[in-house]
Every structure is written in structure tokens, then in C-alpha cells.
Amino acid sequence: MVRLKRRLTREAAYNALHGSAQRHAREIAADQPGSKEKLFAPKLFPAYRAACSSKRDFIRETEEAERCLVRLAEALRVIVNDKEFLSLLMYEGFATIPNCLMQRLHDDATLETATAKDAGMSPAGSSAGRQPVSGICPDVLAFLQDCFVKVKIFGLLRHVLPARQMEIARLMVAMERVTFTYTKILVAFTPRPLLAEGFDPTTIANVSEDQLGAMTPELGRLSSEFLRAEERRGSVRLELVAARRYFEHLMDNSKVVRYLAHNFPDQFEEFHGLSPTPIR
Description:
This protein is mainly α.
């Protein structure tokens, strides 16, 4: 068999996986240098801790930005009921409030609704009725079509069920780590019900089943929260940028500042303390 050392696009990966009845992802993966090497504890545990830490940071930053938007909307809700202040805003050219803030003023459940919707998403739902290609979910190939993916990554993915394959693909892209080692970590820490029949994760990770069982739930929980946060992060970033620009201009106006400081000191502190640095 010719060794496939180059990274493949979706079309090339599809052809490699589907080329013949004997060419399965397992065989392709086994032909790659280093694909049979286990993840040993000195490398695995730091990688696990780093993966958990980066996801916690991402989730925390997103949640902090969301809380900031909620506080701004609540502060704004108080002052827009003041007719004199509204007249001042109109006179000073601040009558047009960003749509994102107006939406939050009229919909207290915006964040909860969006979060519930994200939580109920089924990333691999569109795969219903579509047959795997040598054990690989077709939607995974479609999702990774713009990435350069090493062929042996598919050899790992076939060890987990399609829903988990899609989750792993989303995690790799979101973390910008479409690598064999990161895939191996995610496959190793896959909950038992999502593993392909007959696959034992200790064959790729040199740790005990008890250690895997103790560590898998935490990474799984963080991964789910991370993906939900990643779905919201883009819109949250845009909302926060728009809100900050509006309030920066607002707080540069001396008349507005004096009125707020005198009549709405709490809201004034909220607007005045708004950090100019957006989330990454």
C-alpha cells in the first residue's frame, strides 16, 4: 500500500476511505508513522489539564461578556424611562440605541432562549439516513472540507459513534487544533456509550480504565459547555462591540455625564466602568 503522508481535503479523504472494499480507515491509519503509539501519562495528563483549562477560560470569557450585556441592558432600562433623559439623548444625537440593546430591553429571555436552543442542538442530526463512509460520518467529511486533515485522524474517528465524531470535529476546528494528537486525546476520553463496539480506549492511552473513567466526565462536560459558548460567542462579541461604542460616545458628552452622575449614579458607574477591550 502506498503511504499517504499528505494532508487531505474532504474529496481526497472520501476517495481514500471509500476507494475499495478492503481499504478501511483502520488500515489507512495503521499505515501512518506513529499512529500505533500510545499516549503515555507524562504527555496525556498535562494535555488533559491544558484542554480543560483552555475550555474553562473560553467559557468564562463568554459568560462574563454575556453578564456585561445583561447589566448594561438593565441599567439602560432604568434610565430610558426618564422622559427628560430621553429628550437629552435626542437633543445630543444619541436617540438611536443599538438594536442589540433594544432587543435585550424588550426580551428578558434572549440569553436563556438562545442557550436552551444551543443546548438542544443535534450537530449530527442531518446525518439521519446517510450511511457512514468506512465508519466515518458523512457530515464530518463535509464539516472538515476546508481543513487540511491527516488521513490517520479518520482512523481514530471511526472508533467513536457518528454523534461523537461530529462533536470531536467541532472541537478541533473551534480550538484550531485539527491534529492527530488532539484527536487521540478526545477519542480516549470519550464516554463508553459513544464508543464504537469493541473499541477499548486504553489501546491508545496508557492509563487505567479507572483513570479514564474519573477524567472523562469533566472533559465531556467542559466540551459541551465550550461548544454551546462557541455558538453564542460571535453574536455576543458583536453585541458587546456595538454597546461599547455607543456608551463610549455617550460618556464623552459632558451634559449626558452630568445628568447621569446626578440622577442615576449607579447606572453612571456601570457605563463609566465599561472596559474598552472586547472579548477575543
